[in-house]
Amino acid sequence: MAVAQRTSFLESVNLMFDRAAALLDVPPGLAEFIKRGNSVIQVRFPVKIRGEYRVLTGWRATHSEHRLPAKGGIRYSPHLTQADVEAMAALMTYKCAIVDVPFGGSKGGLRIDPKEYTEEELEVITRRFARELAVKGYISPALNVPAPDLGTGPREMVWIADTYRTLFPDDLNAIACVTGKPVTQGGIRGREEATGRGVEYAIREFFRHPEDVERAGLSGGLEGKRVIVQGFGKVGYHVAKFLDEEDDAKVIAIIERDGAVVDERGLKVEHVAQYFREHGTLRGYPDALFVEDGRTLLEEECDILIPAAVEGQITLENAPHIKARLIVEAANGPTTYEADNILRERGITIIPDVYANAGGVTVSYFEWIKNLSHMRFGRLQRRLEEMRGEQVIKAIEAAVGRPIPDHLKAGLTRGADELDLVRSGLDDTMRQAYNEIREVYLSRRDVPDLRTAAYVLAIDKIARSYRETGV
Ligand code: GLU
User: Fold this and answer.
1) Ligand 1 pocket mutation, candidates 13, 138, 149, 235, criterion most atoms within 8 A of CB
2) Is the pTM of this model over 0.90?
3) What confidence tier does 5 reach under pLDDT thresholds 50, 70, 90?
4) Which residues have C-beta within 8 Å of that of residue 269, sequence separation ≥ 6?
């Protein structure tokens, strides 16, 4: 029996690109160049682990360099392929353009299962991989700056930064060769939560536009909306937590690899997270129903579905059965090209990955700037702001002849710290980008959905950059 042809991750991204490029006046050769990307390197290196030599394979793809450095995470996964890395590098290009982060797009990864290795072994592997990339120009504060992705985190980023610094000790900006570092090692406050926070800000901005909410078949605000989150890693955890604790949405299900927890009344996300941290699984969580085949819950009745796991989760098979009115893509590439077409025909609104999950790289940009300036944000002006606030209070009290209530004073006399500034910058970025995408969508009859609008916006900006500089 012939197996139905499925589009791969890379094909999906490229087809989405083609659909948007066809609506633009970009010379075909230039569009082709933007789409295909600039370079990709494969490295193979031996590591000696538990007395045995193992040969590991990794990649770094640089999709675009119209802005430098090229930016994007490093993923550790046993299933990783070069094509997947290229697909994600392309997404990074479009993402950065959409949120006006002045970087090119890149992505890298190693085909390993990090769970098979001890911390010491992972350090050896990461340092070796970093060296391979750095000496070939694929890690550098000026040219190519990695960040965490699936299977990596702040710990790996420190190893990478330290390896780079050892190789290039006279590079004054060495610490900016990677983002997503711990705060104690040149990282920035708010980077850990950034992607999830960005998803939250995107959803909030969507709900500020009643026409958009109505077009999606929803009504009212975010409060009380029934949300299903797939993936309880860094992104899924943060977005679920914020929606539950700060927006009063009802997170009715969380789907993980080995099963899902469901509670129609709304899960206490932090509670679930504590259990998950302790047991490494959602199975056995006492205060909710456990569903063995978690993926079936993607098709469950809800208002908002947030895929926050890996690519290729919403497919030809389940797209016809999805009941959410709004899908917010916190993961990279969770919807295949065919599924995207089905969902559009079914009138389901998608806030696409290239915008929705751009919070991570946005805060990476802030971290990179912080590293280049060698100073924490807010250090110069925080106390001045507080002093000004106190002066304003004194002036008002003198003018009206009575004291300002304490609770009003508190807000006026608190200067912004780094976390406040990061969140404010991220919020502004997500709002601005949503409105730019929306503008394209509403002003052009040939743009059928927000994803196409986002790609149109990205391709237009990138093509303009190439045209202005000359190729
Ligand atoms: N890995 C994240 C992403 O896919 C973050 C990339 C970055 O911060 O450079 O967007």
Assistant:
1) 149
2) yes
3) low
4) 237, 240, 241, 243, 244, 245, 251, 254
